[in-house]
Specification:
- Helices cover about 75% and strands about 0% of the residues.
- It contains 4 helices and no strands.
- It has helices spanning about 5-20, 25-30, 35-50, 55-90.
- The termini are far apart.
- About 5% of the residues are buried.
Length: about 90
Amino acid sequence: MPAPKSPEFRRRALDLVAHGEPVAATARNLGISESCLRRWMARDDVDAGRSEGLTSAEKRELVELRRRTRVLEMENEILKRASAYFARENVLPK
């Protein structure tokens, strides 16, 4: 997998297309695939509000919230098991 391109590189590529350069020629000249450039264009449209979807910031937030939820659920499960273990230990045998 090729290394990710810098935000400045992406912005320059999008500016070239916005100023009338053909997508295929721009992608070829920059050494990236046409589909990659089209994905960047779609992402830019969403981030700029020109089309519907989650913005990059919203996607990052969603990923972070899902990660945090997984951690909290795991911590909750550990606490439940520990509570059950200590509850069993405190019961006196008859």
